[in-house]
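Per-record layout

source: Botrimarina mediterranea
name: DEAD-box ATP-dependent RNA helicase CshA
length: 458
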Amino acid sequence: MATAQLEDTLTDNDTFELDPSATEPTVTARFDELGLSESMLATLDSIGYETPSPVQAGVIPVALSGRDVLGQARTGTGKTASFAIPILETMEDRGKGAPPQAIVLVPTRELAVQVTGEFQRLCGERKVRCVAVYGGKPIKAQISKLERGADVVIGTPGRVLDHIGRRTIDLKSLRVVVLDEADRMLDIGFRPDIEKILRQCPDRRQTLLLSATVAPPVKRLAERYMHEPTMLDFSPKSKSVDMIEQHFFTVDGDRKFDLLNRLLERENPSQTIVFCRTKRGCDKIHERLSKKRKGVGCIHGDLPQGARDSVMKAFRAEEITLLVATDVVGRGIDVTSISHIINYDIPQSSDDYVHRVGRTGRMGREGVAYTFVTREEGEELTRIEMLINKVLIEDKIEGFEAARPAEKRAAAAVKFFGAGVQSEANEEAEAAETPAETAAPKPAPFGRRGRTKHRRGL
């Protein structure tokens, strides 16, 4: 595997991009070419792992050699197994009650549960104790598990640091540290906690850092706490998954729910996430959908952790087929059966769009995403298109008017808000009826590649 040195020319607004020619891993067709044990190969076969993903083919051999790895990879590419397999392959039998040999830091509670589950699946017949620690759950139960022995600890930085302070996690025998979704952990303010943990880890350790982007904060963390890491880049050329069909609907705000129902009827998806911008909106949509459909769930940050765990467990088991969510599940949740993503509210950040849409099309599967866009949100859609370097396809549902013509919107506004809006509504209707050749042209604010509100008719 080739190595690459971290560049020193980044500013705080840049993202570090690896040189693909220097870091592109050799794609291996089979797991038995990666130097894995017979027992691990048997486990992989039993759980249906047929061929390694590019991330797994690249990271596993380097990690098995003991070198540090800085890998740039999106979620949904098989990266959890890429670090879990080498850890399990090099695990030593130290007996009951021994301190952890590996620790995995993750940004969210949901991801801690998911990564722990993947470790447990990959253990097979091996007796490896994996313990998840995160906030929102009673700490006494976690302490009890840790006292019985934990070979691998998976947790959020804050709760891990809490256990270290209580002396219920001992880092003195640690061999491997994994920073999973490193950019996300730094984005949400975990840097001080991560650095406190890393400073208490043994100097002679292996560090594996996986991140969707290698922005300057991630680069600085790697420079300070990693030893000559092997750099591997598995990021696509654009920030989207090519196999995901991406569409948008132009819709009036008060027609969104009706559009959602009509879209669900038309698509009949096997499993869907409907993303809302706010917790309150999430609750409202969940309540209304539950009156019309079965298998509807809801998840957001205000739910108790027990409820969130229960919802995600039912969603993974496909007992819940329609999940209404805020961006709490926009990253790090790997449920491979999701066929559709519906952005009921356009996300506040273009990067959030990428992570939402990335919930479908997992591990190379096909998926489809729909985004509801009001006329006022045309520029936000243009920014998304520029980020992913792809123009979304406008969709319509036959026989359903998602966005009223201007004169009908004017009448609806008067009915809803009163006669005070009559003058403004009439002006809008008149403007819409102005012939295109006589209307004053508007400049395209984002250049030729992006569409403007004027060109879209939004």
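summary: Residues 1-26, 419-457 have pLDDT under 50 and may be disordered. The domain at 20-233 is CATH 3.40.50.300 (Rossmann fold).
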